[in-house]
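hey m, so remember when u said the tokens were messed up on ur end? i reran from scratch. heres the input so u can diff it against urs
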Amino acid sequence: MGKDRRHAAASDALGASLPRLDAVPKVTGAAEYGVDVAPPGVLTARVLTSPLPAARIRRLDTSRARRVPGVRAVVTGADWPRRHGPFVRDQPALAFDQVRHYGEVVAAVAAETEEAAAEAVERIEAEYEPLPALLTPEEALAGDARLIHPGWRHYELTGALGIRFDPHGNSPFRFRLRAGDAEAGLAAADVVVEDTYTTSFVQHAHLEPHAVVARFDPAGALTVWQATPGPHTLRAMLAELCDLPLNKVTVRVPYVGGAFGAKMYLRALNPAAVLLARCVPGRPVRLVFTRAQEFTSATGRMPMRIRMRTGARRDGTLTVREVAIVGEQGAYADAAPLILRNCGYGSPGPYRIPHVRVDARLVYTNRLPAGAMRGLGTPQTCWAGEQQIDTLAAELGIGPLELRRHNLLRDGDVSATGEVMRDVGARACLDAVAARTGPAPQPGTELGPGRPPRAGPAGVRRATGYALAWKSALAPAVSFATVRLLHDGSAEVACAAVDNGQGARTAMAQIAAAALSLPPGRIHLADTDTSSPSFDRGSTASRTTFAVGGAVQAAARSVAAQLRAIAATELHATEAEVVMAQGTVGARGRHLSYAALLARHFQGPGELLGHGRTGHGTTTPIDPHTGRSTRPTPFWSYAAAAVTTGVDTATGRITSAGLTVAVDAGRAVNPLACEQQVIGAALQGWGMATTEHVGFSTGRPDAVGLGEYCIPTMTGAPGIEAVVVETPTADGPAGGARGIGEIGLVPVPAALGNALHAATGTRHTALPLPADLFPERPAPPAGQPPARAAGPLIVNGREPAEIPPGMSLLRLLRERLALTGTKAGCDAEGVCGTCTVLLDGHPVRACRTPAARTAGTVRTVEDLARPGELSRLQQAFVDHGAVQCGYCAPGMLMAATALLEHTPRPSRDQVRRHLAGNLCRCGAYTHIVDAVLAAAETPSPPAAEGSDGRPGPTRQDEESQ
């Protein structure tokens, strides 16, 4: 990371690791997430889903459901037979003629209580006529396969993407890229390598489930509360679905408990809640997905089958790359066309390759739809392309680092799409990881694909594998922002940056502060909702710092220019003589605060207003026939990864793993936030490669909970070192910033695959890697209450007035006592840790603790702070960056509080073991452990290899040695 700036002076806005603006509400339990929104009079909604992957709906009788006491509305697809979709309108609001995947929503109920809604759903009578389920692309592409969407030739396209809508069976979308002559490139090659690579369906697994509240007012205006990264996109889709003008739809955004590409577009829950709300004007309707429904009724990463061949001359010069991609989009298109385009034109990688031929297609199947997920198709093609580079290096007898460096794109080179490249940061990233993984061998002495195997502990072979990646940003897209300089000299920023855990709003404040010459503490960000004077398609695709930050900077500079002109007039100076600093203006020996200058100029209170816009005209359209564009993306992100593994030669199991990932931030606005993003993304890439997978062999997902679906844990994470390099990009704000939120994930699976090949000689082409390569996942701490004592239940010093029988402690806290800092995330499996509270000083899972049968003293996160003062642990979480999306923070804090009360000076490994049962999908494990140790005032010993994201092997690895 270079110089640690996290404690820099507040006036040094850019390049300072300032604490997040939203950290305090997140560590105190005050932050209101989507699942916490419950306006007065809210109705509870539940949905009925399909038990089959493919069927005609023959009968749907809701009469018995409507008679359940407390039921206020029941809707089916027949009540509103309209279709929606971000790029093609192929998905019904609710299924109304047939179901196309297991878990598709067919009806919804709103009732006064959760129990009444659940009973009503059980009383809906549904009859289906099963249809042949096409569960693989091969089945769907067969010549005699039935059409999953018989009428899709008439579906309406909603966006120009540079892909072809080509009616042909179950494969509607095609992308092609042509550069040079592939046949000539093959003829010029001395060595050609070819293989087929596959990837699997991966779940977003954000700890906060999808949640929405919808309400129509008496005038027919719709308000929706949803934790979404794209309120303006969601607003447009809702307006179209409901046949309303945009000015009749408002989307309000509470805190977002992780998204990673999800929560952006309409899902079954949004239309269901809105259609129910239409039936009960004035009453809000609240629908929250269960964790099981996240696996059956949402989306995930697109599985792909990639056939690739790459050729080179004997000296290592690449001559050709041919790629054939089949993407399984599932039952509906969702974001699949965008994914296809991105992975298609990015599949050549950041290399000079004169001859390129890419053919990519999407296939409808009777499986859960594939949606946008961190990386947007590039992790899949990088998995193929970067392993193929290593295979080619071995065939040529050239080291893989040398082969990459020889062919890297440089400024001035022309890419396969026809773009003249600039500000290319690939070499800096590759050099950064190479420098941190041991001394570089002399040219020509590298052996095989990766660092040569070297001696480790007896019976262990260690080797290093590398991978390089690039990724485009979402385009075309525009962003608008407004900045107001208020009459007291403080500023308010209205922008559409949504903080999903990436620290976007803090970065916006830093950018505005720098442009206005104000301390960051004098910047306030207005709430992000569609009624604010701002616009953006969404805080996705690594574009927020670049695009929204650019708009904020332009708006702030507009205000600064006005302020400078006023100062020149009032101080009788030229604008060039005016100096702005720390909220004051000065010229010719005279100084005024901004507030004094405005009062003097306006002869009383007055404000300045600035507007900023980015995005328009920054890219050129992609030719759908050739895939070419002179500028397909406003900027490219770059990253490199190095994985060093130790493999037991007797068992073949990985005994150690260390991961280094370097990304090019252009200009790091907040270095700590950059580091957090790199580590979190890399950890998700590790999960994609090792443990995360959902199968659909029967049509039903084979994992429907976080107990079955294994995301990395604190003791299961590899050692991760994040490196941030800076190659400023010409159009980026803050001196050249570019987005990095996704790119750290992209090269990790391929780097691990290359490391394993270097250590074992076996080339793996399918993700996830075989389970027998990895140590068994240890069971997390039980987190169950100690022996129950007789007596009352006391919560934060008060005894609840009434405890209904059968109610869990979690529901008591959230629904009866309004202590919503305690979260829910796993359908009472007790495996996520978000509901952790203390019972007589011991951490317990509130979701699995029956309130009526529990006695003792319960403490929740709301009880940690005192008026005006955070606890030492809470303050450490803020100071050390242990909070990202923050959804896991309350549970982490309570578990850590228990540890410190019983073990005041724990070791790093004790912290890791104690918190192993608390998940963090953002991957903040490193910073969480650092925070706990800081709060304990424990000197941090040298990290054991693999501890919590430090370089080295994992906790399981230590046990297996």
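this time it looks ok to me. Confidence is low (pLDDT under 50) at residues 1-11, 440-450, 939-961. if urs says something different then somethings off w ur setup not the seq
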